[in-house]
Amino acid sequence: MIAEIPKATVQASIGGTLIGLAGVNQDYAYIVLAISVLAIVFWAPIGAFGIDLTYKKLLKVENE
Description:
- This protein is mostly helical and 64 residues long.
- The chain has helices spanning 8-16, 26-58.
- The chain has one domain (2-58).
- It has two helices and no strands.
- The two termini are 28 Å apart.
């Protein structure tokens, strides 16, 4: 679950596609885009920090 937190960048790219769609109210599209960018700014560093703290505990290397 910790590794999935920084995936907010994918959500933001999907949120940005609303601006290009025809028939979508541009005001709502810009609100979705702003929320998507905030998701990146907030969650990506938290996820990267979480991965950095836990990868040594959760991953183990087996010798062949």
